[in-house]
Amino acid sequence: MKEKIEKLKKQLIDALKTAKSDEIVRNLEVDFLGRKGKFNDIMKSLKDMSDDMKKTVGRLANEVKTELEVAVQKKYAQLEAEELGQIADTEWLDVTVPGIRPIVGHRHLISKFIDDIELIFGKMGFSVADGPDIETEHYCFNQLNIPPDHPARDMQDTFWVKNLDKTVLRTQTSPVQVRFMEAHEPPVRIISLGKTFRKDNDATHSPMFHQCEGLMVGENVSMANLKAILTHFMQQVFEDSSIKTRFRISFFPFVEPGLEVDCTCPICHGEGKIENVPCKLCKQTGWLEIGGAGMVHPKVLENVGYDSKKYTGFAFGMGLDRMVMIKYRINHLRLFFENDLRFIEQF
Ligand code: DAH
After folding, report:
1. Phi, psi of 151 (to 5 degrees)
2. CA-CA distance, 245 to 259, in Å (whole number)?
3. pLDDT score of 52
4. Which helix (H) or strand (E) segment is 209 a member of?
5. DSSP alpha helix (H) spans, the chain
6. What percentage of residues in the chain have a pLDDT greater than 90?
7. Is the pLDDT of residue 155 over 80?
8. pTM
9. What SS3 class is residue 251?
10. Separation CA 322–CA 44 (nearest Å)
11. Within its chain, how far is the Cα of 29 from the centroid?
């Protein structure tokens, strides 16, 4: 019996030596050491032996079995190590190779321009107010003294929101004036920048565009303040202290009087031409239209509960995209929104 055990041991050790895969080792393990394996056959045969034999053979069989179990585990470990070694040989890593720099993006030109504007007005004591892009007719039009038959409400102009009664994508940032005044007592000095929407689409109009709204209300706020603030703003934003502003009479229902705001052309400096070449941007006029403005209509002040006898104020609204186009000499509005990296990366 002893020889039989030693023979089994040798057989398994030899087989393990040449085994090349986990699967082969596993089969050997089952065959020799498993519940129905060769060693268990020996254990079963113990019951027919004398007590003495049972003891010696039993002990030997157990010792050899444990020894072989260790050998099997070692073989598994050896195969695993070999496998890892092969992977390491084919997929080695050279830690001295220079790294690949990840591509880092940056904020969009319009977003950066919004920051610039907030900074310029911030230095003049204006804080930034926000309002929703989806606005009620009440704030977008009614409270701003825009009557129901005003063309700005026309289906050609305004995106009405389906299934939501009297709700629009805001056509202007002016409703933020109303929202802010309803929630705050005068004096008020705010700007509000953001997206606005109209049913327009051509080289200089996009259905989504950006506006900057301004509002200053208090005692003795005058049009002179409006002119000073907007002139300073234009000079700062175009980085040109020679810029002048001009106001022309106009109409907006929420201001009285209403004004168009022009500034001298930052390209030809108001000359209408550059070295005798006609300036294309201002069409030789020397002036550019930048936005609308005016003194806040008493009705709007009263709509929000302000005493229109005590308080006066001015408001203005400017198109941001056009200002960015002028400042950075960009000739097509759609470039802002096409997400072409060749364009975006330039700024
Ligand atoms: N909201 C006007 C527009 O989109 C622009 C505007 C004009 C805003 C006069 C004002 C203002 O605050 O006083 O055309």
Report:
1. -60, -25
2. 12
3. 86
4. strand 208-218
5. 2-18, 22-33, 38-45, 51-90, 109-123, 137-140, 175-183, 223-237, 298-303, 320-327, 341-344
6. 73
7. no
8. 0.72
9. coil
10. 96
11. 58
pLDDT band at 186 (very low <50, low <70, confident <90, very high): very high
The answer, yes or no, to whether the previous bond of 278 is cis (omega within 30 of 0) is no
Q: Ligand 1 centroid vs 334 CA: distance in angstroms?
A: 23
Q: At residue 196, does pLDDT exceed 90? A: yes
CA 234 – CA 171 distance, rounded (Å): 24
End-to-end CA distance of the chain: 89
For the Cβ of 192 lying below 6 angstroms from any atom of ligand 1, the answer is: no
Residues counted in the chain? 347
Nearest CA residue ID for atom 4, ligand 1: 172
Highest mean pLDDT among 3-12, 98-107, 114-123: 114-123
The pick from 227, 316, 321 for probing ligand 1's pocket by mutation, whose C-beta has the most ligand atoms within 8 angstroms, reads 316
DSSP state of 37: S
Q: What sign for the dihedral angle of Cα 147, 150, 152, 157?
A: positive
